[in-house]
Amino acid sequence: MKKIILLLCISVLSLSVFAQSEKGHVYLKNGSIIKGKYSYFNDRKQLKIESAGNVWIFDADEVDHIASKREGKTMFDEEAVSDIKWFFRTELGVLAGNSDNSQTAPFSITGSANYVINPNFSAGLGFGVEFLKETYMPVFANLEYRFRKQQTSPYVFLKAGYQVPIEDSNEIYYDVYPMWSSFAPWPNEIGENGFDCKGGVLINPGVGFQQMFSQTFGMNFAVGYQFHRLNYDGENDYSLDIDYNRVTVKVGIIFN
C-alpha cells in the first residue's frame, strides 16, 4: 500500500513539473510577439500563454518559435496580440519638375486609409490637394509592400487614380478672325477664350523608408515618379492635353 501511495505521489509531482509554465517571448507566424508564461498541453498540439492578465490559446502550428529574450523589435512590437488592421498615412511634399516649367515644384498634400492584408502588404484609398496650374484633388488607390516586419523598414508603393479639378481653368487660347470690307482689309480681330479643365489620370510609383516609434505612430520619407495628364476642352471641339512628369519628394506621418 505504501508503495502504491509513493508511486502516486511521484506521478503527481512529475506531471506538475512537466506542466509547469515557463516565461519567454512567443513568436507567432503572423508576426506578433507575446511575452508571458507559456505551457503546452493536449499532447503539445496547443500552447497556452498568460500575459498581462489575459490568456491566449494557439495551435502549435501557429507558433514560429519561442525565445527566452526578445530577438528584435518588429513592426508589430507588442506584448499582446494586436488586431490592428488599418493604418493612416498623411504626406506633405513637392512635385519637382523641369526648371523651365512655369511651376517648378508645386505643393502636394495627400492622405490615405490602408488595410493591412498581411504584415508586409497593404492596400488602401486616398485623396489630397495638389496646386498645379489649377487646384486639383487627386483620388487614388494605394498599394504598399514593406520588405521587413521590423519597426524600421524600406517599402515600395504604387498610387494610381484621377486628378479631379476643384477650380476653373487658368488656361486660355486665342482665335484670330480676319475682317474684310468691300474696300480694304481691316486689322484682324482676336478672340480670347477659356478652357474647361477636365482633370486626368495619374500614376505614381516610388520607394520609401519608414520608422515606427510605437505601435500606433511613425514617420516616413518617400521619393517617386508621378505622371499625370490634364485634359482641357474649349469651344468648337478645341481640346488641349498637358502631360506632367514629376519627381515626388514627400515626408509623412503614420498613425492608427
UniProtKB/TrEMBL annotation:
Keywords: Signal. Residues 1-19 form the signal peptide. This is Outer membrane beta-barrel protein. It comes from Draconibacterium halophilum.
